[in-house]
UniProtKB/TrEMBL annotation:
<keyword id="KW-0472">Membrane</keyword>
<keyword id="KW-1133">Transmembrane helix</keyword>
<feature type="region of interest" description="Disordered">
    <location>
        <begin position="517"/>
        <end position="544"/>
    </location>
</feature>
<keyword id="KW-0675">Receptor</keyword>
<keyword id="KW-0732">Signal</keyword>
<protein>
    <submittedName>
        <fullName>Leucine-rich repeat receptor-like protein kinase</fullName>
    </submittedName>
</protein>
<dbReference type="GO" id="GO:0005524">
    <property type="term" value="F:ATP binding"/>
</dbReference>
<feature type="binding site">
    <location>
        <position position="241"/>
    </location>
    <ligand>
        <name>ATP</name>
    </ligand>
</feature>
<feature type="domain" description="Protein kinase">
    <location>
        <begin position="213"/>
        <end position="501"/>
    </location>
</feature>
<dbReference type="InterPro" id="IPR000719">
    <property type="entry name" value="Prot_kinase_dom"/>
</dbReference>
<dbReference type="InterPro" id="IPR013210">
    <property type="entry name" value="LRR_N_plant-typ"/>
</dbReference>
<dbReference type="InterPro" id="IPR011009">
    <property type="entry name" value="Kinase-like_dom_sf"/>
</dbReference>
<comment type="similarity">
    <text>Belongs to the protein kinase superfamily. Ser/Thr protein kinase family.</text>
</comment>
<keyword id="KW-0547">Nucleotide-binding</keyword>
<feature type="signal peptide">
    <location>
        <begin position="1"/>
        <end position="24"/>
    </location>
</feature>
<dbReference type="InterPro" id="IPR017441">
    <property type="entry name" value="Protein_kinase_ATP_BS"/>
</dbReference>
<keyword id="KW-0812">Transmembrane</keyword>
């Protein structure tokens, strides 16, 4: 009899604990829904809310939260996060502490019983809620009472039922919920993420088919997949990049998880990239997860890639003037400086800057593509890229071979190689370059020091009248490809130098689309802060 009593007590205790755990999970899920709804209403240019994702729980990794021991969100600190938009009074009524100061572009009204502990900008007001009103969670829902009543029904059933049956039923219910939750997570993960209002889920529905892209035009192919030209509508063309999964199946799946951790992480990172906007960055329009690949839907660039243009220039079937080449270089520099600039909230390193990732429109306006992708989706090994060497041979900064890490200065090195290519129309891996300089930057430096730089210049540019500007561009390329990363300029400084090639007057910072920390004095002038001057001040009027 005593044994039966102990069994009964332990059973009730176990069920009570399971009920509390389940109730806590419901509450945590409710908080998550509220916070995600809050995030959806606001513009987040600095990506302060990047960690707020459906793939994680609020109290595990979300920025700015304070949680109770029971896993409820009780505090929110988003001071100086740069948030913009209108706050709904129904979203934050149950927080015990809130700090939104420094977000001067926020507006709206918050309803709470705790206004005295809320710190908000002057454009946001807090109205006191009556204590006698029902205590709301972060988000008012109609399902909460039903969820809580489930615990009562469980208790009544246990009190009048058979103890062992109740235990079995409880375990079965929890197991069923776990399975359904896992299935729901799988389905949500496979839904497309859309970043542009021109695209609807219906437009992308055809991609569910295994052979959806078979008959589409191939724009390019790399070590990790192909890029296709696809017409979503009669007047709406996009480029779809198909990135194959690189991991082995057994490595991709966590125990009990049908979707790999890598896939979830990739999805979360791509959500960040999808909201980046700049005229010189190729826009990511949508993302779709498939069992064997990631589909990235980009805006279509009718001018093709800079690599295509260089190939045609080398064959003599395309001629680009120096102003057109300079326009391309400035466009790439604008995009790169924007990625590197710390005002974005988190600096993005491209990691694979090369002509194939620079796309052109009809007017030779350049846009930088695949930014950040090399860090998110590792590539398969090819003749040009390997799992050990991230990047492309000829464009990889020398320090990477020692540190195995990419930095902003690594991107600047790659960009210097791009400048050299547009000036010379030569490949950095060309045997002549390797034999005579080791790298295209070192070869250009030798040509400049020899006093006969004409041998390095594309013959199509000789006699164009832009010789002085071309010479300065060569020197910038040498500057960017310095073997010591500390001696390379910042991307924002490179942009200034390029703009000053065609406009010797000081370039105001507010015209650069970036927050440069450099001086407003001409970098190519005698007082330039980068020490690039002695070799350039006497050559601006020279000719070949």
């Amino acid at each position: 009899m005593a044994s039966f009593q102990r069994f009964t007590i332990l059973t009730f205790a176990a069920i009570f604990c399971l009920h509390r755990i389940a109730e806590g999970a419901y509450n945590n899920e409710e908080d998550a829904q509220a916070l995600l709804a809050f995030k959806a209403q606001l513009h987040d240019p600095n990506f302060a809310l990047q960690s707020w994702s459906v793939l994680t729980t609020p109290c595990s990794s979300w920025r700015g939260l304070k949680c109770s021991r029971r896993g409820r969100v009780v505090g929110l600190n988003l001071k100086d996060a740069g948030l913009q938009g209108t706050i709904s009074g129904e979203l934050l009524g149950n927080l015990e502490a809130l700090d939104l100061t420094g977000n001067d572009d926020l507006e709206g009204t918050i309803s709470s019983h705790n206004c005295k502990r809320f710190m908000v900008p002057s454009s946001v007001s807090c109205t006191k809620r009556n204590f006698s009103s029902p205590r709301r969670s972060l988000l008012t829902t109609t399902t909460k009472s039903r969820k809580r009543s489930a615990g009562v029904r469980w208790g009544l059933g246990i009190a009048v039922g058979i103890v062992s049956g109740a235990v079995a039923a409880t375990l079965l219910a929890l197991l069923t919920r776990a399975v359904l939750g896992c299935y729901a997570g799988t389905e949500d993960l496979k839904k497309p993420i859309i970043f542009n209002k021109k695209i609807s889920p219906q437009m992308l529905a055809f991609l569910d088919k295994e052979d959806a892209l078979t008959d589409c035009r191939v724009l390019g192919e790399g070590g990790n997949g192909k890029v296709y030209q696809v017409s979503l509508q009669e007047d709406f063309v996009v480029a779809i990049k198909c990135v194959r999964h690189h991991s082995e199946p057994e490595q991709e799946q966590e125990e009990g998880d049908p979707i790999s951790h890598d896939a979830k992480q990739i999805r979360a990172e791509l959500e960040t990239l999808g909201f980046i906007r700049h005229r010189n960055l190729v826009q990511l329009l949508a993302y779709i997860f498939k069992s064997d690949s990631h589909l990235l839907v980009y805006e279509f660039m009718p001018g093709g890639s800079l690599q295509d243009a260089l190939n045609r220039m080398a064959k003599g079937t395309l001629t680009l003037s120096w102003p057109e080449r300079h326009r391309i270089l400035c466009g790439v520099a604008q995009g790169l400086a924007y990625l590197h600039n710390e005002s974005l909230g988190s600096s993005i390193v491209h990691r694979d800057l090369k002509p194939a990732n620079i796309l052109l429109d009809e007017g030779y306006e350049a846009k930088l593509g695949d930014f950040g992708l090399a860090a998110i989706v590792p590539l398969k090994a090819t003749h040009a890229t390997t799992d050990v060497l991230a990047g492309t041979i000829g464009f990889i900064a020398p320090e990477y071979h020692q540190t195995m890490r990419y930095s902003q200065k690594s991107d600047v090195f790659s960009y210097g190689v791009v400048i050299a290519q547009l000036v010379t129309v030569r490949s950095p891996t060309e045997q002549f370059i390797v034999e005579n300089g080791g790298s295209i930057g070192q070869w250009l430096q030798k040509c400049l020091q020899s006093g006969n730089p004409v041998e390095a210049i594309d013959p199509a540019l000789i006699g164009s009248g832009y010789e002085a500007e071309i010479l300065l561009a060569m020197k910038i390329a040498v500057f960017c490809t310095n073997l010591d990363p500390l001696q390379r300029p910042k991307s924002s400084e490179v942009l200034k130098m390029l703009l000053q090639i065609r406009n010797p007057d000081p370039v105001p910072t507010d015209t650069l689309d970036v927050h440069s920390t450099g001086s407003d004095t001409p970098i190519l002038g005698s007082s330039g802060p980068l020490g690039f001057v002695q070799s350039t001040s006497n050559t601006q009027s020279s000719s070949f």
